[in-house]
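User: I've been going back and forth on whether these two constructs are worth ordering. Before I decide, could you fold them both?

Assistant: Sure. I'll take them in the order you sent them. The first construct and its structure tokens:
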Amino acid sequence: MHTWIKILSFILLCLVYYWIGYELERSQFWLLFFSYTLAFGLSFYLYRSGIRLSYMILLSFLLKFIFLFSIPELSQDFYRFIWDGMLNNQGINPYLHLPKELMESHTIEKEDFQRLLYDRMGELNASNYSTYPPIAQMVYTLSYAIGQSNLLLNIIVLRLFNIAAEIGIVLFGLKLLAHLKLPKSQILFFILNPLVILESTFNLHFEVVMLFFLALSFYYLYTSKVYLSALGLAGAIASKMLPLMFLPLLFPYFNKKLKVFNREQILNYLKYIAILVICLIITYSFFWTPEILSKSFKTLSLYFTSFEFNASIYYALRGIGYWWTGYNQIEIIGTSLTIVTLLMILFLCFIHKRIDLQKLMNYMLFAATAYYLLSTTVHPWYLMLPLFLSLFTTYKYMLIWSWLVFLSYSGYKIHGVEENHLLITIEYVVVIGVMFLEFRKRDKVNYLEV
């Protein structure tokens, strides 16, 4: 009887994903959230059903292949990915030209496919310079070189890259879990998670490639191959820039003595940083011109001072700012919260003289959590980073957040974006409440060490 329930649960899960991938529209929020919640429930049942881990890993990848021929519906970003790949293939630097400017000039041919990409990437993408780092650009370039003006073929190539990255995450993630003496089944919290399946495989967001390099970096770090670890971290940063926030946390990890700021610690840390910087210089050299810094900084600064979506603490402070001054204080609040995040990371860096890999994983999870709780913009796929880091800890609050973050899709209407602040409030009240209860269970002395 139990075997048939497992089989029926997997078939139902396949049908749910098919429905989301091929039938559902983003504006049908309640149908989307119900389907997403059902997928979560079925995935959790299968996780707890006693199926062998190797079979569960295989089933998780079979679920991903359901989306192979689907056109992403929940995000427009993939049109910009293909656009950047197209520019690279034409010898045009995507860091230097706005899509809007290119379409208004005669720099590129305005064929049907180019117009399709431009029209569907959205106003936000069309009016900002590309900030996708070099490894992402190389993948987009290869995708377009293969797919050319065939939209579906471009999508399939990008999808296969993401699936290959997840295979790498599984291979190195299992080794890390074994080293940390954590259950290997925790890898399923990531690869079987509906957030990862939908935002990575379906919507084609590049976070999993970054996380593959991050897993590679962690693996070589614990095997004491620190130079290869630096190479892996450089690959992660050259895929998505977020892992830059973890650089200060590596400083106490390199301390093998009781005295802080000892010569060996400083030299090893500087060697690590030097290798990382050299690798980043090499990857960016393929796209480098003096204008890149100013134009990339202009777009990145908007993330902290202009963009708003699914925020928590920022929205509360924004409300106070409106009450106090009568207008949106995002530039001041966004910059201030960024500084607070940096101070919190530095606090984690110096709270202990030396840390092991387990503490490093915990600190990275806390840093990423703080970053997103204080951020002005938290799209669902952003949470793949802290969700991945949570695999290598005993903390489970990211599972709840990876479910409730889909409430943010209530903001997408047929025309434009209008957020439902009640649902966002529910999301963060529950998540912060779960975090508080989970931290409260820890011994106060080991609060930042377990």
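The second construct, handled the same way:
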Amino acid sequence: MQFKLNPKTFTESGLRVIPFLENELEQTLEEKLPGVVIPSALFSGKKDTHFTLNQENQLVLLLGLGKTPDYKQAENTFRRVFSKHASLITKETYVDFPNGISEDLIEAALVGLQLGTYSLGFFKKEEPKDFKKHKVGIRTSSTSAKDLAFSAQKIAEAKMEAFRLVDLPPNKITPPNLADWAKNLAKRLNLGVKIFDPKRAKSEGLEAFLAVGRGSAKEPKFIILEYRHPKAKFHLGLVGKGVTFDTGGLNIKTQGMHHMKSDMGGAAAVLATTQLVAELRLPIQLTTIVPAVENAIDKDAYLPSEVIGSHAGLSIEVVDTDAEGRLILADGLSYLVKNYKPDHLIDLATLTGSSIGTFGYESAALFSNDGGLSHGLQEAGEEIGEKSWPLPLWEVYAREMDSEIADIRNYHGKPFAGAITAAKFLQAFTHEHPSWAHLDIAGVSFTDTEFAKTKTGSAFGVNLLLKFIQKQL
């Protein structure tokens, strides 16, 4: 999609899109369509409504934003333009923003417009329509229009990349595929990159990571990306759970395995965030780690009751092989803290069904030992519709992970506090880092939406992390 700012005229062959705030309907009609009267019974600007008309031989689509739209609402409203009204689009598209609309809503609208071109039909015989060269004129009085259009384009590109990484099937997104993706990104954006194969991972002491990948024919890859800016304000470390497919291991899953290609939603989020930070040239240092494995079953698969090592030097009793995500994250967190010493440390993972039991599909579970970091993530998420809510890290929960035979066990096996005990397990591998946050995104990274007939990637975390970073600058 190619943006053109403030075109002097609208061609008759193009679709003109005008957003309306419900409480400014008459004002916007007078500004954009003078002389046109629309009965309120047909269109009033209410949330999630639309109306089409032909004005001077041009097709016009009116979009209702409601009285006080938020970022996510505006994004979804404009995503419908290409997703649900594609039949109205012939040549150019024009977005005609009324005066006074906030810059946040303009950015959200332009992001959503591009997200509407995303399709799940990767392998269909009839390929989805390609909108890469589609021209979009943007008319706005905002003095920051150029910057808004640029940032919106990069946000949308990153989010669609996160969509794609989650939505592609597990025979296309494997640990080696993710490693190749990271290499290509590093080459394109001049990032540092390291990929550890099993031999190198063994020499680095990444024993828990290697144990999970033992049962798969697909070689595990420990991925490290380094973005460096000469005027960096702080150093952020990200770790994303990269289980490209999860059978549950020998504690095999008994339902829902069809959706387990999504168990690398955390990896998709941090990789796409790295792309976005580098594209926007944000003044930070960013180190991203993705331990990428497939949790499969064969003669070499790790066993329930095994005791395995870890990068942090702690021995781990494996109670459940389906609690594998926390094992690879443990090594990722420990390696990042020990070797890079970031100012802030954040991990994202589709970790527990318990977080879904608590928050459903509306919010991520947030754990942190730093009140400022926790509040910053909450605040950033509220602004762009990627909500999280804190749960406690009280030390009493750590006792649930005590093991008789090893330093710690990977699962407490009880029907309560699953998300909390998982977080306490991870905290044991952070080397007491003073500013760490864990986002359990199991309920929000792969969801049902109006834009697909099946569950699909949401890119949860990409815009959240961007807004959090921007607020620290």
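Notes on the second construct follow. The first helix runs from residue 25 to 32. The CA atoms of residues 8 and 139 lie 9 Å apart.
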